[in-house]
Amino acid sequence: MNPKRTRRRFTAEFKAEVALAALTERQPLAELAARYQLSVPQISRWKLHLRQQAAQVFTDAVASTPAPPDLEPLYAAIGRLEMENQLLKKTLPTW
């Protein structure tokens, strides 16, 4: 009986290296598949994914990050609730 084979996981750097090697087309995909011990369809998927996502490398990173939330109203609400809590502790009878 064969031992159970675990699924291989590849880093983003490794995928980028393989996809870039496939994009340069200096070697056929079959040779790249043998060299990296991958299947040809897997390399083709990574190559396609790199082509589709390549434009995002050059986008402005500042525009893609959302603006931080305004904390002043939150701090004001916390202060108001603390004051109400203290007032209720003073005025309500304790059980």
From TrEMBL:
Q: Which organism is it from?
A: Hymenobacter rubripertinctus
MF-aspect GO terms: sequence-specific DNA binding; transposase activity
Organism taxonomic ancestry: Bacteria, Pseudomonadati, Bacteroidota, Cytophagia, Cytophagales
What protein name does the entry list?
A: Transposase
Recorded hits in Pfam families, A to Z, give: HTH_Tnp_1 (PF01527)
Say which domain of life the source belongs to: Bacteria
One GO term of the biological process aspect: DNA transposition
Q: Which InterPro entries match?
A: Transposase_8, Trp_repressor/repl_initiator, WH-like_DNA-bd_sf
